[in-house]
Amino acid sequence: MLKIQLFLIIIHNITVFFLGFYQLLEPKVIVRCRKEDVAMVQAAVKKNIPIYKETVKSNIEVRIDENKFLPSDISGGVEVYNVDGKIKVSNTLESRMDLLAQQMMPEIRVQLFGANQNRKFMD
């Protein structure tokens, strides 16, 4: 059981950072996390920077925001910002669940109300 939890944490950390880094493709980024996750995020950043550099063939400078933290009542995850804070990639569990709910809405609608006879395309 412990091995499974550890594996899920590692996969989660790699996925969270890679998605944020790859979506921004900025040379400098700021990572914001919960206050209690700072140590884990620092370790994950150190592991992911060499992999990112090798894959993208570009350097990246990552700074963990020690002044502003994500709320403690969220389940976890990070937000990755560009240097000036104008672009944000939110990789929190709540934001991912919201995205999933939006993507699943057509399927949920069919399950609740049945197929729409007026709909011509089922994509």
TrEMBL record:
GO terms for cellular component: proton-transporting two-sector ATPase complex, catalytic domain. One of its GO terms (molecular function) is proton-transporting ATPase activity, rotational mechanism. Pfam families: vATP-synt_E. InterPro entries: ATPase_E_C, ATPase_V1_Esu. The keyword Transmembrane helix applies. The keyword Metal-binding does not apply. Keywords: Hydrogen ion transport, Ion transport, Membrane, Transmembrane, Transmembrane helix, Transport. The chain crosses the membrane at residues 6-25. Subunit of the V1 complex of vacuolar(H+)-ATPase (V-ATPase), a multisubunit enzyme composed of a peripheral complex (V1) that hydrolyzes ATP and a membrane integral complex (V0) that translocates protons. V-ATPase is responsible for acidifying and maintaining the pH of intracellular compartments and in some cell types, is targeted to the plasma membrane, where it is responsible for acidifying the extracellular environment. Belongs to the V-ATPase E subunit family. This is V-type proton ATPase subunit E 1-like. It comes from Sinocyclocheilus anshuiensis. The gene is LOC107683053.
